[in-house]
Structure formats: structure tokens, C-alpha cells
């Protein structure tokens, strides 16, 4: 079987700003990542995904790029980057970069030129429209709040920004622009990197009529847009394929059918996709800025739908609970106090026993939690500050707003990596760019490595199992008891083998009965309690108990 290497790889996402500082300026850097490569090798991961380290005004933490060909001095130099790549490769760790090509910073030279006049040769690299009735061209909304159009007085036109006002959307209809993007990809591929994570890539093709949206925020006119598959295939043909790049596309508000098309190997578009439907289960009626328990049955239904759908459709999933935009999984779906270790292991098992390529976000492997900030002054994220102001205008109390931000802010994932119980958690000798979580004295990497029962060693074991058992990569997926309100259980079957995965998602004890006979050859591959029952036919599951049975 000719297997793509990434099918049983595990990816580790690094948010460099918060990983490890070596200069004392309170901001993580590339040398800090180099310093921690041995730790990542011990964990057993195969790939590092680096969020953007390109030159940027940092209005949106590097997702606003002003020069695609240079490293932001905050993180170091091109020599530092090359050393990181080299040192990672020495340890058999691959490196993929973040590719942000839906928009650039308004500080990018292309945009500065484009804004000079309507006749400028770079004008068409961006999306400009005339005013309509003295206002914006249509009623599309920015994903960060407010209109998606910004008026430019010099040329009396509006430019489109689906994100921050300093992030101007690129015009993919322009062939010359696309060729410049492919040249830039080639530059990094020639350096020897191993692939890309493509930021909001399914938004690059816009409906060229730019119609008003009668009910929504406009997303239906640019999400999985008219020419998206054509563009992805072209990019694959031009650069991604020839350089054998691993690719994962971040897909905003996408569909299963589209993701099958994006990732079917014969279509030559992308290798795998991130979708976020399972991370909206605590957004009642789609509302993020509110407090609600997560809808467990919906969570099971969505994850199962994507497992079965991608398996049957021949696509490939990227599996994840956490990233730099999401709250910490153990605080969101587990218990970040009494059962922090147990529930973090349960969540890891639930995901890592599925089909796909798992992504671990820095700190997830030691069970890091939301920091529980108590003041808006502790937050740095533009989206959180916008939401704070909007909620203030809506008349919510300070207490209520802080409670919501404590659960939902993107900064929950962005507090510095907790390396030790030392001051500033061993992250910096200076003043950290964002406060460090108070629990770093007990939740840190040093403690995790010393305790053989820690979350870290559970992740290490999950990575080993994926390498050893083909069934994790190739088996089918079937959910058991989809309407069970407490337990997420499923089977994976392949070549006469079965994996039975049982996860109690709550802190109460529950009875669980298997409705099929397992036969004699049953062994426990992994559990988060030392004395889980050897036979799964009828079990009393303890709080957050998680067991993987291998049946031959």
C-alpha cells in the first residue's frame, strides 16, 4: 500500500509568540523553539506547524502579513529560521508554515501601491468597489465585527476586508496575483519546508456580483466560492504538487461535501481540512459571546458525521480540539479542576482514536487550562476587545462580560507555555507579552515529565499506538448508542480487528453495557484509570473514564 506519510503523522502546533522567549523581551522567538526541539522529540510528534512568523505589524498576531519573504524581527532572523528547519529535520521532525493568502496587511507594499490610484498596476490585486447610495457596496460584515468594507478617500472607493480593517482581501480573479503567490510558495519550498497550513483558504473566491445578503453576514457569497476548487487545483499543479508539500486547509463555515472534494487525492487540491462545526456546540443559535453548556449529543453527531463521511467519500480529516483561536479543551469539554488530568486524557483518546491526522496545540499535552483572567486589561486579542466593547454597549455588566471572555476569548489559548514552576513559568526572564496562567506552579512541563501518570505520557502513548496499529489509520468508524447522554463510544473495524473506544464525558459514574459479544481476545490498549475492567460487556464507568479495547 502506497501510504502518504502524513496519514499516521501527528502534528504539533506552535504559536511562537507564546512558546519560549530567549531574549528576555517577553515574546517567544525562533531560538526558543530550537531550544525545545528535544522535548518535542520526546513527545514523539512528526510535524511542527508554525503559526505566522513573517514580517507583520502584528494587528492580528501575524495573520496580517506585510512581507511574505522575511521573518518578523520579533521572532528572529532568516538565519534563525533556517537553523530551526535544519535542527528539526535532524530530529526527523518536519516543519509546515502558515500560509495567509486570503488577505495581506494594509502595510504590504502591494496594498500601499494599490491605494495610490485607480490606475496603479497593483490596484487589481485587491477588491475595490464604488460606493452604493453614499455607503458601502453591500451589507457584508467583517468576521471581527462591523462592515467588511473600508472607505478610501484618495480614490473614492471601498476595499474589502473580511477580517480586520488592516487585513485587505486579495483579488484571486487576477492571474498575475496568483502567479506572485505561487512564486512566494516556491521560495519557501526551496528552503526545504515540508508543507503549509492554508489560512481561511475556502474564502478566496468571491461572488463577483457582490450581492447584498438579505439574512446573513454575506458569507454565503464567498465561502467555498464559485472558483475555489479551480484555484486550489491550479495551486497544486503549479507548486504544491511538484514540491510534494503536505497541505491542510482551514475551512471556515464549510460543508462535508466540499471537504471531500478538497481532499480526495485524485482531485489534487489539498491533503486534509480543518472544519469547526464540532467547536460551535457551545454557541447556542450560533452565538459565540454567551455562556452555555456544550451540546454533547450534537458534538457526537458532528464528529461521527465527519468520520463516516470522509471515510466513505475518500477524503481526509485533520483532527483537533485546540488551536490559537479556541479555548483550552480541558476547560471547555472536561473539568479543569478536580479531574483535570483524567478528563484531559479522555478528550485526547476520544480524538486520537479517530481516522485522520491529529493536531496537538502547545500546552494541550500537559493539560493547560484557560487562565481565568479577571480584567479586560489582561486581554490582548483584538476580537476580545471588540466583543467587550459591543457587550458593554448592549448593557451587559462587567461581571457577566468577564465570565463570557473567560470561557470564549481566543487569548485562553495564547497565554505562555508553562515550562516550569519558576517565575513566569520558565517562558521568559522579562515581562511576558500577556499574563501567565496562575496555575503554572502545578501545571507545567517539568512536573508532567516527572509524573509517569501525567497527561504528557498519555499523549506519548497515543502517538505510539497510531504508529503501531494500522486500524487507527485505516479502520471504518461506527458510533455506538448515539443518544447516550453521557458516553461517547465508537468502534473502528479493519481486517478482522476491532477497536472499541468508550469515553465517559462527565464527572458522574455511569453504567454502560455493550450490546454485542466481544469474544475472547480482548485487551486494553489504553485507559486513564489503572484498573479499568478487562472485558467491556458491562462496565460502571468512573468520572471521565476512557478505555480503548483491542478485539481480534
Topology:
Elements: E1 11-14, H1 30-35, H2 37-43, E2 47-50, E3 54-55, E4 67-71, H3 78-90, E5 94-99, E6 103-105, H4 109-114, E7 128-129, E8 149-152, E9 157-160, E10 167-169, H5 175-191, E11 195-198, H6 228-240, E12 246-250, H7 256-263, E13 272-274, H8 296-313, E14 318-319, H9 329-332, H10 340-352, E15 357-361, H11 382-393, H12 398-408, H13 445-450, H14 455-468, H15 470-474, E16 478-480, E17 487-494, E18 497-504, E19 510-513, E20 522-527, E21 538-541, E22 546-551
Parallel strand pairs: 1-2, 1-15, 2-5, 5-11, 11-12, 12-13, 14-15
Antiparallel strand pairs: 3-4, 6-10, 7-9, 8-9, 16-17, 17-18, 18-22, 19-21, 20-22
Helix pairs in contact: 5-6, 7-8, 10-14, 11-12
Amino acid at each position: 500500500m502506497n501510504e502518504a506519510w502524513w496519514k499516521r503523522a501527528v502534528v504539533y502546533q506552535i504559536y511562537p509568540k507564546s512558546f519560549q522567549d530567549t531574549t528576555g523581551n517577553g515574546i517567544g522567538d525562533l531560538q526558543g523553539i530550537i531550544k525545545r526541539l528535544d522535548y518535542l522529540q520526546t513527545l514523539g510528534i512528526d510535524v511542527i506547524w508554525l503559526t505566522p512568523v513573517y514580517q507583520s505589524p502584528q494587528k492580528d498576531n501575524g495573520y496580517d502579513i506585510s512581507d511574505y519573504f522575511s521573518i518578523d524581527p520579533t521572532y528572529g532572523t532568516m538565519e534563525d529560521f533556517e537553523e530551526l528547519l535544519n535542527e528539526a529535520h535532524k530530529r526527523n521532525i518536519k516543519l509546515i508554515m502558515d500560509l495567509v493568502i486570503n488577505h495581506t496587511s494594509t502595510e504590504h507594499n502591494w496594498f500601499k501601491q494599490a491605494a495610490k490610484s485607480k490606475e496603479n498596476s497593483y490596484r487589481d490585486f485587491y477588491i475595490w468597489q464604488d460606493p452604493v447610495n453614499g455607503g458601502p457596496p453591500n451589507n457584508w460584515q467583517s468576521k471581527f465585527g462591523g462592515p467588511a468594507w473600508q472607505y478610501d478617500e484618495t480614490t473614492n472607493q471601498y476595499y474589502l476586508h473580511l477580517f480586520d480593517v488592516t487585513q485587505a482581501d486579495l483579488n484571486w480573479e487576477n492571474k498575475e496575483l496568483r502567479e506572485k503567490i505561487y512564486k512566494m510558495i516556491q521560495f519557501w519550498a526551496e528552503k526545504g519546508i515540508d508543507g503549509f497550513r492554508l489560512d481561511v483558504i475556502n474564502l478566496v473566491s468571491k461572488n463577483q456580483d457582490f450581492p447584498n445578503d438579505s439574512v446573513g453576514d454575506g458569507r454565503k457569497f464567498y465561502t467555498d466560492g464559485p472558483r475555489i476548487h479551480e484555484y486550489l487545483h491550479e495551486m497544486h499543479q503549479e507548486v504544491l504538487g511538484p514540491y510534494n508539500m503536505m497541505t491542510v486547509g482551514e475551512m471556515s463555515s464549510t460543508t462535508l461535501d466540499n471537504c471531500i472534494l478538497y481532499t480526495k487525492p485524485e482531485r489534487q487540491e489539498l491533503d486534509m481540512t480543518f472544519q469547526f462545526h464540532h467547536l460551535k456546540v457551545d454557541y447556542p443559535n450560533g452565538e459565540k459571546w454567551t455562556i452555555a453548556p456544550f451540546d454533547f449529543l450534537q458534538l457526537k453527531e458532528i464528529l461521527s458525521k465527519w468520520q463516516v463521511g470522509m471515510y466513505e467519500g475518500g477524503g481526509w480529516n485533520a483532527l483537533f480540539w485546540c488551536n490559537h483561536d479556541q479555548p483550552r479543551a480541558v476547560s471547555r469539554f472536561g473539568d479543569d479542576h478536580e479531574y483535570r488530568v483524567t478528563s484531559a486524557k479522555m478528550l485526547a483518546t476520544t480524538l486520537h482514536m479517530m481516522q485522520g491526522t491529529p493536531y496537538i496545540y502547545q500546552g494541550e499535552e500537559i493539560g493547560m487550562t484557560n487562565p481565568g483572567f479577571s480584567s479586560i486589561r489582561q486581554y490582548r486579542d483584538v476580537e476580545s476587545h471588540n466583543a467587550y466593547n459591543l457587550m458593554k454597549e448592549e448593557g451587559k455588566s462587567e461581571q457577566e462580560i468577564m465570565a463570557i471572555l473567560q470561557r470564549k476569548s481566543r487569548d485562553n489559548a495564547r497565554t505562555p507555555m508553562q515550562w516550569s514552576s519558576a517565575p513566569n513559568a520558565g517562558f521568559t526572564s522579562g515581562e511576558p507579552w500577556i499574563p501567565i496562567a496562575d496555575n503554572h506552579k502545578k501545571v507545567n512541563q517539568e512536573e508532567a515529565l516527572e509524573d509517569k501518570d501525567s497527561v504528557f505520557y498519555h499523549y506519548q502513548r497515543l502517538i505510539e499506538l497510531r504508529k503501531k496499529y494500522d486500524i487507527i489509520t485505516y479502520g471504518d468508524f461506527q458510533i455506538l448508542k448515539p443518544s447516550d447522554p453521557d458516553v461517547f463510544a465508537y468502534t473502528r473495524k479493519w481486517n478482522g480487528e476491532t477497536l472499541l473506544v468508550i469515553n465517559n464525558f462527565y464527572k458522574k459514574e455511569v453504567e454502560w453495557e455493550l450490546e454485542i459479544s466481544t469474544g475472547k481476545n480482548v485487551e486494553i490498549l489504553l485507559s486513564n484509570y489503572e484498573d479499568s475492567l478487562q472485558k467491556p460487556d458491562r462496565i460502571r464507568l468512573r468520572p471521565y473514564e476512557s478505555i480503548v479495547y483491542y478485539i481480534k
